[in-house]
Design goal:
Elements: E1 16-18, H1 24-32, E2 38-40, H2 47-53, E3 59-62, H3 70-75, E4 81-84, H4 94-99, E5 104-105, H5 112-128, H6 130-138, E6 156-160, H7 164-175, E7 179-183, E8 195-196, H8 200-206, E9 209-212, H9 226-231, E10 237-240, H10 249-257, E11 263-266, E12 290-292, H11 301-321, E13 342-349, H12 354-364, E14 368-376, E15 380-388, H13 392-400, E16 405-410
Parallel strand pairs: 1-2, 1-3, 3-4, 4-5, 6-7, 6-9, 7-8, 9-10, 10-11, 11-12
Antiparallel strand pairs: 13-15, 13-16, 14-15
């Protein structure tokens, strides 16, 4: 891919760091876009190792293991953007990144199908007792029986969190003959024949299977606790493929041991091992009526490829022309590609008078502003200016002098 514009920092000088085995699709996308200075690790780095390398990184790509704290961001003096090659972004100090003028991008929809398919498989396996029957056979026991084995057709699936994953799960479940109901704190349009419920307690009481698809927030932490489990049917199944903090594991283990629930499938845990070398510990490990998976809901090759291309494309667009659309912590601006102009990016605290001072600088130089794009949120403003000028370096220095400036640069 060629680019006739003269970039203020040539692409071969932009350092890209990709951690945790980001899919090859991202690397290929960056290279096709002209970025060749890419460092790749197939694992997360220690805090000390990451702090040592961050000062020279312009674009950082991580997954869920890397914790990007405010302290870490302080070391990243050249960092322009962060890509989370996953759904969640809670591993990044988003507000601190915003304060430093660093947009964070993710891929909230790229692994939707993979998670939904895993949940469907777990529902069927739990109702048919597949795990127990498999273990019996590996021990040489031939226990052919229909006792305790059920079809999923006619069962009621309750979905907590009716977003992209929850709604697609509902459609797949309907195709199996299940009745679908859901609860969400926001008003959502029902897909298929799904029924929205106004109270979480109603969903807990009426559902044969309950599947969680909520983000990690203060409101969702411990959402499924002892009291919530007590509301469920005695033969209900609980599935958590959302966030580990949503379910009180001790209460769940107790309910399963006492046959208060038929079974459970858990893909995410409050504490997860940092690597394959660290043992996994959980009170659910020894229970026969659970399916435990190591946070693999979105871990299919198809999903990882989709995620890699999705996030890499967002990072390239931001680096190439300043487009911040879909950033999770940043004012969102979609920008066209312009030629024959100088494009400057100015990130500032959202306070009255900043834009006036920006425009005064260009007016004093009698530079023509061809186009101006501005978006703000409560804390930060992001303005992009396409200008006809012969003195970008001087303009940049004056923009830096505005007291509310967080970060500014000449893009091309």
């Amino acid at each position: 891919m060629t680019d006739s514009r003269r970039l203020s920092l040539s692409k071969d000088k932009i350092n890209i760091l990709l951690l945790e085995g980001v899919h090859q699709g991202a690397i290929d996308y960056f290279k096709k876009a002209g970025y060749g200075n890419i460092t790749v690790y197939d694992h997360a780095l220690s805090e000390r190792a990451l702090e040592a390398i961050l000062p020279d990184v312009h674009i950082l790509g991580i997954r869920s293991r890397t914790q990007l704290s405010d302290k870490m961001l302080e070391q990243a003096t050249k960092l322009v953007a962060v890509g989370c090659f996953c759904i969640g972004t809670n591993q990044v100090a988003l507000l601190d990144a915003q304060k430093k003028g660093i947009p964070v991008f993710n891929a909230p929809y790229a692994n939707t199908r993979s998670v939904a398919e895993l949940v469907i498989a777990e529902i069927i396996c739990l109702y048919r007792g597949v795990v127990q029957k498999h273990m019996q056979l590996t021990q040489g026991q031939w226990q052919k029986s229909a006792v305790g084995s059920h079809e999923v057709r006619g069962k009621t699936l309750g979905i907590i969190g009716y977003g992209h994953i929850g709604s697609q799960l509902g459609l797949l479940a309907e195709s199996l003959g299940m009745q679908v109901q859901y609860y969400d704190i926001d008003s959502k349009l029902s897909l298929g024949n799904a029924t929205g419920l106004n109270q979480l307690s109603d969903l807990l009481k009426r559902s044969d299977v309950i599947s969680l698809h909520v983000p990690e927030t203060a409101e969702t932490k411990g959402l499924i606790d002892k009291a919530a489990i007590a509301m469920m049917k005695k033969n209900a199944i609980l599935i958590n493929a959302s966030r580990g903090s949503v379910v009180d594991i001790e209460s769940l283990a107790s309910a399963l041991q006492n046959n208060a629930l038929l079974g459970a499938a858990v893909d995410v845990f409050p504490e997860e091992p940092e690597s394959a070398k660290v043992p996994f510990e959980s009170p659910l490990r020894t229970l026969p009526n659970v399916i435990l998976t190591p946070h693999i809901g979105g871990a299919t090759l198809e999903a990882q490829k989709n995620i890699s291309i999705d996030v890499a494309a967002k990072l390239v667009r931001y680096s190439d022309n300043g487009t911040s659309a879909t950033a999770v912590n940043f004012p969102q601006v979609s920008l066209p590609v312009k030629t024959g102009v100088c494009r400057l990016l100015h990130i500032h605290w959202n306070k009255p008078g900043v834009l006036s001072r920006v425009n005064e600088i260009f007016s004093s130089h009698k530079d023509n502003i061809v186009a101006q794009y501005l978006q703000t949120n409560a804390q930060v403003g992001y303005v992009v200016l396409d200008v006809e000028t012969e003195q970008p370096a001087e303009l940049l220095q004056q923009l830096k002098g505005i007291p509310e400036t967080i970060k500014t640069r000449v893009l091309y």
